[in-house]
Design brief:
Shape of chain A: globular
Largest sheet of chain A: 6 strands, mixed
Helix content of chain A: 40-55%
Oligomer: homodimer
CATH topology of one domain in chain A: Rossmann fold
CATH class of one domain in chain A: Alpha Beta
Largest interface: A-B, 161 and 161 residues
Strand content of chain A: 5-15%
Structural class of chain A: alpha/beta
Number of helices of chain A: 18
Radius of gyration of chain A: 24 Å
Low-confidence stretches of chain A: none
CATH architecture of one domain in chain A: 3-Layer(aba) Sandwich
Distance between the termini of chain A: 55 Å
């Protein structure tokens, strides 16, 4: 029997609070004990990766308390309930089924009379068939020419995740001869966004993927019109250049304005939709359905690991609980995501949405205010770029910011150069290793301006190479981390009521139904 | 006589702390009083812009206390000392002269026997002449063809600022027929970064701008070799495709490996170098020297406004002090930068460096630990994209995050579309107006999950259009804001000792001179 409890009613939380400041990171990471920690505080992930938490402020006592917390908060049981089809998104009375797009962990899930795993697989197959026909030249433009570019039109989860995934695999696919079409993305209602993308492509050879679950997202419909105008101005028939990704009940679903329609449903939130056809269409068109399958397999393997009730063998749960310790016990307000991989340049932006939109909430799943802090601010840029930017604050600022590193032994593009006795890839890896230790141990200096206190916690996910499987595993790891944290904080991580008020007021501005300050701002902006 | 004091020794700070929580934003922004605030709490900026702080948690009492703080902390006098050539960067014993690259506010500044204003102007002229010759086809590749692409190789301040500025003006320049060459940027030591850029360009028609003040930045020299290899492999002479931006004393300065060398000096920090030839070379090549001049003029005008001792007429000082109130009195740990302009997509990344590298410090300018918090975490993405991402946390999260909006009445590219009775630009502007009010006033709802408490402060910079002048003014505004905050916190905002330790350890890893945990991490990463 599952009991949904606030964090501050869980006994293990009291125990955990007693362990505030328990671990002196500079001490435990020094010498041979440090080496031992790096070996031991590591848990395997899918695709040959590992989550290493040696440089986190934990020891056996903290880990035991976290394991007790996981047990008392019934994290494994709640995950089971989720993948077996319980109504976990209580506010919107919806199932939460994104894991089912890439595998089935439990019972058959039937909703609205449909076996949902079969539904997702069928949609994925439809996407694969379509992509194969485009690549084979069976679906072409009116002149019989192959499409060379795919443009995703979507915003939020229909943009950030798929865009981050595309950028993550672009070099890999070129190098592995699975690169079929370049992908571009239009998201912002700022007309300069669409204008800029359209200027850089040959619209006659472009296929547009319109993504809106409801079929009513204002930014997306506006950008669709923008694109249709451009197609018409080029003497082209928009219906021969567009596909839709939407729900079966949306106005776009049966429209003749699209070459094809691929379906998602209400059980997959936007920020969790990269493994549904929201990500599937653009990624299958860009890299081929086989690559998308490999991406799904990586995610599916990671989902399985998240079902392990043993905290020490469950990377997502461990990451989640260490994060709760840092946020609620240690009191750190933000977390930085620092991939040492240029291919992951937009992965932090995806995680920003995933995490902050899921757990940036002040009421629990029953709508009652919580009296503890929840989701942190998430930000990040790729290393080594960040080192020459905001790392100053991370090393010597007055607030401690926990860090989440990601690194790979091998690069993707297969080009490298040897300078001063090492390759670029070696320099990249040397930097991330060095940073972990600099943050953890610091360095005493008699000049206080050059002194580093250390004691700044980090973890690192290490993989061999950023392959489709590794990317899928990374994506699922963070989805599952956020899910577990939502369970601990007793939140509904799957709605986003906080985005509604702004939409309502914006409509009022456009209808000129404003007064007071809102009218003043509208006037200042010439609306 | 200037007295450098810690914030907690300034009397006005005690007074300010008494005003914690003084202003209920939802109350003061409601009704006609709200409208009055929007009209009154606005201060003109350069290029026809205005800084509007109506939706900040300030009133006449708070503003008076801030004015007193500004006076007691001698902000105007310190700025004067800076632009008159005092050694403000005490740690490195350097002058701080970035404002002098775009105008002269005070006395002649002579350093190392050189009038520095004349030096910066001369470098700028050298850049302009070179760019004009490239555009005119007087400087070409070996085959006599015009260069079509400029690629900046640099990291940190040699990348983030210039890249953000380039993206900010790309559409504007195309629309205004001042677009000469496309610009690309290589920064990360990850070899996939350079590989990816090189795959997308015609190297035979590309001009590379190598930017390193010291001439020793490892990432940049490594990427230079990467590029030189690519040029050689294409049968080209690298020396005919590269220019250097460096200091006169660097090994690059007199090298025959470059077509030309443009100089900066130690008095301009990387993150403050967009208006020096670090930004000047790439921006003049991309958009023409006239556009770069207009950009400098906007910055120069803004610098003049920052010299006004009257807080209520000094946008940068006001922004800085409200930020100090939010950070040190209200206790907010982060600030979000939210430009409603796709062209400013990388402006938040630039500000992240500018702010966090300048003021993310725990010791004052004399090297003594401070006992108050300093620079906040800075993050952001363009609206409306952010609305569909992390705004959930901003609206309903447990922490309050102050917001810095930017908006323009007109877009840049001159293309727009009318849907449901409004243009995209109107929708964009309606959204930012709506968000300010949603954050400030919230909305009561009996369903706590749909309830918005409001009380979340924001400011907005409103302009007519993102022109070169407006961009220069924006850049200078934030530089000056950060400078004033550094004065208030009594920091040296112009060094960055916090980035050193990681560099030292990375070298040790590459030399295989490691033991303990660092050796373990190195092994895990196959270095």
């Amino acid at each position: 029997m599952i009991s949904w409890k606030n964090l501050d009613t869980v006994k293990a939380y009291e125990q955990l609070k007693q362990l505030k400041g328990k671990v002196n990171l500079a001490d435990v990471m020094a010498g041979e004990n440090g080496a031992k920690r790096v070996k031991e505080y590591s848990v395997p992930m899918a695709a040959g990766m590992a989550y290493n938490y040696a440089a986190k402020q934990v020891d056996e006592d903290v880990l035991s308390a976290l394991a007790e917390l996981a047990k008392e908060a019934q994290l494994t049981e709640k995950y089971e309930a989720l993948y077996n089809g319980d109504v976990i998104n209580t506010g919107e009375k919806r199932l939460v089924l994104h894991q089912l797009t890439r595998g089935q962990l439990g019972n058959d899930v039937v909703a609205d009379g449909v076996n949902k795993r079969e539904f997702y697989v069928a949609q994925q197959k439809k996407v694969a068939d379509f992509a194969n026909k485009v690549h084979a030249g069976e679906i072409t433009n009116a002149a019989g020419e192959k499409f060379t570019t795919v443009v995703q039109i979507g915003i939020g989860g229909s943009d950030l995740g798929p865009r981050a995934m595309y950028l993550a695999l672009e070099n890999w696919a070129r190098q592995n001869n699975t690169f079929y079409m370049e992908a571009k993305f239009i998201s912002n209602v700022d007309p300069d966004d669409a204008a800029s993308v359209l200027k850089g492509i040959d619209v006659s050879r472009s296929l547009f993927v319109l993504v809106s679950k409801s079929g009513t997202t204002l930014e997306t419909l506006t950008n669709e019109s923008f694109v249709k105008n451009a197609l018409k101005n080029a003497g082209l028939d928009p219906a021969k250049h567009m596909v839709a990704v939407t729900s079966e009940t949306s106005p776009l679903a049966q429209s003749k304005d699209y070459l094809a329609a691929f379906f998602m449903d209400d059980y997959i939130g936007g920020r969790y939709s990269s493994t549904s056809c929201v990500g599937g269409a653009v990624l299958s068109l860009a890299f081929g359905p086989e690559v998308f399958d490999r991406f799904l397999n990586g995610a599916s393997e990671e989902d399985k690991l998240a079902a392990n009730p043993d905290l020490r063998h469950n990377p997502a749960m461990l990451d989640a609980l260490i994060g709760v310790y840092e946020r609620n016990v240690q009191g750190y307000p933000a977390t930085a995501v620092l991939p040492y991989s240029q291919a992951l340049s937009r992965f932090p932006a995806h995680l920003q949405q995933l995490d902050m939109e899921s757990n940036g909430k002040s009421v629990n799943r029953f709508g009652e205010p919580v009296s503890y802090v929840t989701g942190p601010v998430i930000f990040g840029e790729p290393g080594t770029n960040g080192q020459h930017s905001f790392y100053q604050l991370l090393h010597q600022g007055t607030d401690i910011v926990p860090l989440q590193f990601v690194g790979f032994r091998r690069n993707q593009a297969g080009m490298d150069v040897d300078i001063q006795g090492s390759t670029s890839q070696q320099k990249l890896c040397a930097n991330v290793a060095a940073q972990i230790m600099a943050f953890a141990c610091g360095k005493k200096d008699e000049n206080p301006n050059k002194n580093f206190d250390g004691g700044r916690p980090s973890s690192i996910i290490i993989g061999d190479q950023l392959t489709p499987e590794a990317l899928g595993a990374l994506l699922a790891h963070f989805e599952n981390k956020v899910m577990f944290q939502g369970f601990v904080w007793n939140l509904n991580s799957f709605d986003q009521e906080g985005v509604q008020l702004g939409k309502v007021l914006a409509k009022r501005v456009l209808a000129h139904e404003t007064d007071g300050a809102l009218k003043e701002y509208s006037d200042l902006l010439d609306i």
